[in-house]
From TrEMBL:
It is an enzyme of class 1 (oxidoreductase). Residues 6-183 form the 3-hydroxyacyl-CoA dehydrogenase NAD binding domain. Keywords: Oxidoreductase. GO terms for molecular function: 3-hydroxybutyryl-CoA dehydrogenase activity. Its EC number is 1.1.1.157. This is 3-hydroxybutyryl-CoA dehydrogenase. It comes from the Bacteria. Residues 187-282 form the 3-hydroxyacyl-CoA dehydrogenase C-terminal domain. Belongs to the 3-hydroxyacyl-CoA dehydrogenase family. The keyword Oxidoreductase applies. It holds the Pfam family 3HCDH.
Amino acid sequence: MEIRSVGVVGAGQMGNGIAHVFALAGYDVLLTDISQAALDKALTLIDRNLERQASRGKITPEEHQAARGRIRTTLTLTDLGQCDLIIEAATERETVKAAIFEDLLPHLKPETILTSNTSSISITRLASRTDRPEKFMGFHFMNPVPVMQLVELIRGIATDDETYKTLHQVVEKLGKTAASAEDFPAFIVNRILMPMINEAVYTLYEGVGSVKSIDESLKLGANHPMGPLELADFIGLDTCLAIMNVLHDGLADTKYRPCPLLVKYVEAGWLGRKTQRGFYDYR
Ligand code: CAA
């Protein structure tokens, strides 16, 4: 099946990055969220990031304008019904994601492929609540989407080969690299990355190092582009906690126990860059 139009649900940091890369690759994009303010903010960020790529010679000004022209927005979720591919990139809560698919289903074309950008929730379970589990897949982008090369492709138990092949071709057209992961909690990237971030928070909690020394150690000692605490702030501490909870519940192993300090920060509303405060103060 050839994909031409893509509906992106959720205009947050992942959703706007996904809209950006699809538009740049020539797809028609329809982006939706629950408030006009969220859509306006997303368009401003997309423009800024396209501009950044143009100013560094990665794309031409014409490509910037063409990509921007391919992105439309709507506040009405059901407007996405005619898209060939749906990418759900809403809040990392299963009830929210399930409700979005439930609302969309009666308006979809029979051939539309459904995907979720979930970083950890079971694809098989999300798919089982739709009318097309064979056309449902995990489609997991990394943040910042315009920069990161990888896309995880996660098949649910019922996903058919045609759906997998179609999405693999889409990833190639985006100029990115697909990695296949089986449908187990947090897949590959977050199965490995999140316990490392959680361990960095324990290292802070137990007084082994300061925020600065922990981050510098991993940057200078292991060549990571960002320290683990800086990266946690970048991803969002609520997202990090949600993923640790999925690992802890799904694999029933105490090695995935979320650090109490991570829980406390999230309870305080210190979610990282998006709230101007996390392990660092951005105010
Ligand atoms: N849009 C477009 N381009 C962007 C961008 C964006 N949002 N953010 C950065 N860039 C570009 C810059 O323009 C720059 O381009 P050039 O190479 O052409 O100069 C390049 O990316 C590097 O950016 P900067 O020079 O501003 O800053 P940097 O060198 O410190 O890199 C970074 C920034 C790319 C974010 C780097 O720090 C990094 O790779 N960090 C780790 C990110 C990471 O691990 N992401 C995965 C998180 S896990 C995840 O996403 C999964 C999940 O489910 C939670």
